[in-house]
Specification:
The structure is a single chain. This protein has about 170 residues and is an all-alpha fold. The chain contains five helices and no strands. Helix 1 packs antiparallel against helix 2.
């Protein structure tokens, strides 16, 4: 994997060098054209063309190296995922060997027993004690109904705001 990365880096450097050479040859061709030196300008353009062809091949090589590197990275990821899945499968198998139906049944029975005990305890502590134990709910509700009736009477007897004679 590292050698592919190093090779890609080398190819990128060569590509930059080729691009520089292409630009240099183009500049030379322009200079020779200005000086009316046609044969030398053509020679520069031929070199430029040759460097451009090399550049195309270099791009193709870089592309192949990148593709190979990508495939290797993907394969390594897949191998890692498969290894993790195998570890998980082994752990599940081991856990299943440790679990026995008898153990599960007894554990569930214990949970139900504890739950029933908690229900009994909660019921016992929720019972009223002392003075509250002697009070009847019916008596309290009747007293509350009387209070509500008194409040309603008071509201009906109050004069409406701004609604009396001479209050407008």
């Amino acid at each position: 994997m590292q050698s592919l990365a190093e090779r890609e880096e080398q190819l990128e450097k060569k590509k930059l060098l080729l691009e520089k050479r292409i630009n240099d040859e183009m500049e030379k061709a322009r200079d020779f054209t200005r000086q009316k030196k046609k044969s030398q300008a053509l020679m520069c353009l031929k070199k430029k063309k040759m460097f451009e062809q090399q550049l195309e091949r270099m791009d193709a090589l870089i592309s192949r190296v990148m593709e190979q590197r990508s495939m290797l990275e993907e394969q390594q990821t897949t191998i890692g995922v498969l290894a993790s899945m195998q570890d998980a499968a082994k752990a599940q198998k081991k856990t299943m060997q440790e679990m026995k139906i008898e153990n599960i049944d007894s554990t569930l029975e214990e949970i139900q027993e504890v739950g029933e005990q908690m229900r009994v305890i909660n019921e016992a502590i929720s019972q009223p004690v002392g003075g509250f134990a002697d009070m009847e709910m019916d008596d309290l509700e009747a007293e509350l109904a009387e209070l509500e009736a008194e409040e309603l009477d008071n509201q009906l007897l109050e004069p409406a705001p701004g609604g009396g004679p001479g209050g407008g």
